[in-house]
Structures are given as C-alpha cells and as structure tokens.
Amino acid sequence: MSKVVFLLVPRVHLLDLAGPAQAFGTAADIGRGYELSYVAEREDVPTAQGLTVRASTDLPALTAGDLVVVPGWRSPMADGTASLSPATLSWLAGHHAAGATVVSVCAGADALGMAGLLDGRRCTTHHDVQDELARRYPRAVVIRDVLYVVDGRIATSAGIASGIDLALHLIAVRDGPDVAARVAREMVVYARRNGDELQANAMLRHRNHLSDLSHRAQDHIEARFAGPLPLADLAQDCGVSERTLTRRFADATGMTPLRYQQVLRVERAEHLIGHGATVEAAAHAVGFADARMLRRLRSRG
C-alpha cells in the first residue's frame, strides 16, 4: 500500500487536484495499492473555482514508497498569498530526503522551490508562470513548454490537464504501462503522453491501447529513436521474437516498429524546423544520415 498525500494551498485549482486524484483513485479501484489523503495548513481550503474543500491539518508520517503531490493554485507567485509555513516546508523536504518522491502540478512547483527541492534540478510549470519560477529559483533548470519533467524523485507538470499525464506516467513506472493504459481508458483520456513532447503527437495518437508489450517497445523506441535501433535488439529488450514483436506491435498501433521510429523522427524534425533549424540540421539531429530521407518522409504526410 502506497499513500498519495495531496498538499493543498488556498485557491487550489480543482483540476490540478482532481485530475491526479482521479488517476490514483482509479488505480486503487482496480486493485492497485494506493491510499489517498489530503492535508493543508487549515482545515477548510477555498479553491480557485469557489468550492471549499476540507483537509486534515495533521501532516502524516510517510515512507519512501509514498507520494506527496502539490497541486497548483491561482496567482501563486505574484501576490505572495501562498507562502507555506516552515513546518510544512520542512515536512515536504524531509519526505524527499527520506528517499521518497515529491510531485507538483502547475504552479505547485513554487512549493517545491520554497522547500529547496528544485535546486540543481530540471523542472517545469504552467507557461504563464515559468519565467517567474526561473527568476525566483535561479538554481533550478526550468524546461519550458513541456507537459512534465521527471528529475530523479522530483516530478513537475505544466498544469491543469497535464497533471493527469504525469500521474499516468507515475502509475506506469510503479505498476506497469498496462495498468496506466487501463486507468486512462477508465478515465476516458489518452494514455501515456510523454512529458517532453507537444500535445498532438505520435506518442499521443498511438498510445491508446492496452498492449503491455507494445507500450514497452514504444518506451524503448521513444528513448532512442534518434539512433540505430535494430529490430533484433528491440525484440531482445522486450523479451520476444522479432516476428512476435512486429505482429503484436502492428496489431496495437497500426504500424511496424520501424515506421513508428520514423514517425517520431519526422515529428521531432518538424518541431526543430518550426523553431528555426534548417532541414539539414534537423535531419541530422533526429538520426537521418542526410536530409533526403527526411524530405521523402515529410512529403508522404
């Protein structure tokens, strides 16, 4: 059994809270070991949307297997209304120091910064406050305009709906991609959007299936799509034959592993070109020997 404790701050955004809570709650409903609870410095917590929620004021003792999630709140950095007490920040930092994971959604990253947990770490937050986060915590490495970032035992998301993506990622890491896909399906959301990509991408379109083998193969491909990835090596990594991998991957995604790798390369190249890279530079960055193959694949649509 793992505890998932949500630390609530006044004017918390409901979806920042409800999205991850629904994901972990759904995982608990299907038999995974999660126990959800909610804590705050005051029992009654007003939300940004006008609903008041109730939380415990007792900060629980936690183990290394437990999670603390800090949802975002309205105007967290501009007006200084969301400062947390030294005792709360010490509890948050102590939980991480004990070997556990701390998670933020949206501007909840500010709480992690106040606790000293962003120093020297990659992180992200909502695009409206990412500049302020970088200014307030200059030792943090703020990754801009991505869905979520995981740096060791610190995980931060861009906010609002991306908190669901981060929760599904954490469930996939702890319980397996098949469980995360089942949770996403129960929630009627797309499964497994990767943190460092745009929202409408191949990692979104081709992850809405329940094949654990294909999810594991996609994980391997996405981690190394810019380099050589022989089918024999991929099949060995997944513990199956090349024929089995190709058949089951195609059944789940509608394409071969090689074609999936090409789609990822082209999408990444398009992203680089859109940010000023030449076609030749983008082609080399994503693993093509020259721009001819990239041009050919782009012309296919």
UniProtKB/TrEMBL annotation:
Record keywords, A-Z: Transcription, Transcription regulation
Domain of life: Bacteria
First and last residue of the signal peptide: none
HTH araC/xylS-type domain span: 215-301
GO molecular function: DNA-binding transcription factor activity; sequence-specific DNA binding
Organism lineage string: Bacteria, Bacillati, Actinomycetota, Actinomycetes, Streptosporangiales
UniProt keyword Transcription regulation present: yes
Gene3D superfamilies: 3.40.50.880, Homeodomain-like
Protein name: Helix-turn-helix domain-containing protein
